Amino acid sequence: MARTATLLDQGWTRHAIAVAVTNGQLVRVKKGWVATPDADPVLVSAARDGVVLTCVTQAHRLGLWVLHEGGPHVAAPHNSGAVRARSAHVHWARPPVPRHPDSLEDPIENVLVIAAGCQPYERALAMWESALNRSLVDRDTLRGLRLGPAARRLIDEAVPWRDSGLESFVPPRLRWMRLPVRSQIWIAGRPVDFLIGERLVLQIDGGTHVGAQREKDIAHDARLMLMGYHVIRVGYSQVVHRWPEVQDLITRAVAQGLHRAR
Questions:
Q1: Backbone phi, then psi, for 127, in 5-degree steps?
Q2: To 10 degrees, what angle do helices 149-157 and 108-118 make?
Q3: Start and end of every DUF559 domain (predicted)?
Q4: pTM score, two decimals?
């Protein structure tokens, strides 16, 4: 993907561009934009619609943990008129990091800040912690930007050591219990997802917990129980769609004192 203005600045002539289009080496996407025939169709659509990929759509492309159902999220210049992006969620606000005219993808800082104001808190937190975990951004860089209240809250609460977005959901949901909830604590040679109090272990199974991985998890659970820990193991669907079930298990275990060392 390229703007014709950029190609002209780089030494191309209008005639050379026209010949490349005639020969099939380039495709005219719209006035001012050309692409190679094998260009990413998502970027082609963004150029054609005059938008930039951002929020959960760009987060997914970057490999961040995203829980999203719905159409694409794109950004348009805050002072532009209507855009052609159909069935898309269009973000109009001025971004904290200026967008280069050649860019069709928002930088990670814009992605996270826009998501902070767009997505529910837990989903935005999972995205922020995923970005920190992968070292795609650092906290000090984010603190230096002009941010709204939602983004400032996430800077203070996001941590870089969550293994998955599912783990980002748990601490906020258990905060009301006023118990220590520590994540990625090594016990019996492996990290546990969460240690509640001194002895209550919460393990969350994602899509990879099958086959040999599942057998290792079962063996580790057995070692933990022999060491005096109580293990609650739950799955993706329970955390995302049936959290009251998980909360009920935890509160009943705490009521029995299973979170305390004996």
A1: -65, -45
A2: 110
A3: 182-253
A4: 0.87
Buried b (16+ CB within 10 A) or exposed e, 194-226: bbbbebbbbbbbbeebeeeeeeebeebbeebee
Runs of H (alpha helix) within the chain: 4-9, 14-22, 41-49, 55-61, 108-118, 121-133, 139-143, 149-157, 165-174, 211-226, 236-241, 243-255
pLDDT digits (tens, 9 = 90+) for 61-116: 999 999 876 789 999 986 665 566 667 899 998 999 999 999 999 999 999 999 99
**Helix, strand, or coil (residue 203):** strand
Find where tokens 């209507």 sit: 82
| Domains of the chain, CATH where assigned | 1-37 (no CATH), 40-157 (no CATH), 165-255 (3.40.960.10)
Kind of pairing between the strands at 181-187 and 27-30: unpaired
pLDDT tens digits, 113-127: 999 999 999 999 999
CA gap 171, 162 in Å, rounded? 11
Residue owning tokens 């052609």: 84
* 165 contacts: CB under 8 Å, gap ≥ 6: 65, 66, 67, 123, 126, 127, 129, 130
- Residue 136, judged by CB atoms within 10 A of its CB (0-12, 13-18, 19+), counts as middle
Structure tokens at 3: 């703007």
